[in-house]
Amino acid sequence: MPSAAEGGTDQGAAARLLEAVAADPVVFVRSFHVELFRCAPELAERFPSGLGGHHAAFVTMTKHILQGFADGSDPPALIDLLGQLGRDHRKYQLGEEHYRAAKTALAKALADAARSTRDNEFCAQAAALVCAVMEQESNRRDGPQTWEAQVVERIDHPGPTVVVRLRAAMRPQPFAVSQYLAVQVPQRPGQWRYYSPALPPNDEGELEFHIRAVPGGMVSGAVLKNTQPGDRWLFGESYGSLAAGLDAIPADQSVLMVAGDTGLAPCRAIALALALRSENPRMTLLAGARSRAECYDLPNLRDLARDNEWFNVLPVIDPTPWAALARTAVEFAKRSEVVLLSGPPMMIDACLDALRAGGVSLGKIRHDPRP
């Protein structure tokens, strides 16, 4: 298979492998990890067993890459995707020998899934391309692979939701307003989750995260149950561009932010960052919740609105909050130049469907995917 950068792929082999991986993802994941840990036993501590979310994401990403090869997708788009994977894997502190092991393991897992020798060459070349691009991008990235912050306070709210405040030695912190970060807590070593700071980067090293219990969530449950002052959290790569360009929007235009659950956090960070400027566009924040008790940060947001006449916050409280939030968003969106969506996937989907049906241009709507 010629490299993706050269524009050539064996589309037939990719399609066959995609079907094989989708048919038995458990065997594919097991084959990869058995070979990976055989080649590099020390990686077993960085990728502990029981990481169901990690395994599911690995399968999803593999299928996405194979689909791109099978469809003959734009090579730069695939390279960009692999580059993001490389940046994300910096938090595992991988060396050249680990990428060699990953290349061997991925080639074997793909070949095992194929159950035929005719696609072995494609398996080897695809694995080599994936790992080479990831390693190159990881090495190209500046800054620390990981950094730490210490918990200084926790505040419990109904929901249940906990606000965790930390202080980092690194100042300012290596992320932009509204981005989300890879986070590892000491109660769940090796298990990374993605959370959005509710404060913009600052010279005081202050961080704040809003975390709600997720049914069956091992990390969110551990945070709510066990996080205490003195805990040290580990941070990896930052992602997202929700707030990109907001500082260039003229003061005579309007921005709508639509938030649900702890998707409120990046919207709060955006408003706090803009409050440091002298002129801002008109900004309305719609905050969806099932009950008033779930509007845990409403008093702080109303204080911010009282001190900044360009900012307004409106709670949307309903037993079916995403449907109500979507209906409310349509009318506000028609009067806004930019619409930012932040919340769980069901909320994002409900809002996109309603905005599309309401005739709102999708070109002015932004939301960040998770890695």
TrEMBL record:
Its cofactor is heme b; FAD. One of its GO terms (molecular function) is oxygen binding. CDD domains: Mb-like_oxidoreductase. Pfam families: FAD_binding_6 (PF00970). Residues 144-245 form the FAD-binding FR-type domain. Keywords: 2Fe-2S, Iron, Iron-sulfur, Metal-binding. Signal peptide: none annotated. It comes from the Bacteria. InterPro entries: Cbr1-like_FAD-bd_dom, FAD-bd_FR_type, FNR_nucleotide-bd, Globin-like_sf, Globin/Proto, MRET, Riboflavin_synthase-like_b-brl. PANTHER family: NADH OXIDOREDUCTASE HCR, PROTEIN RFBI. This is Oxidoreductase FAD-binding domain protein. It comes from Segniliparus rotundus (strain ATCC BAA-972 / CDC 1076 / CIP 108378 / DSM 44985 / JCM 13578).
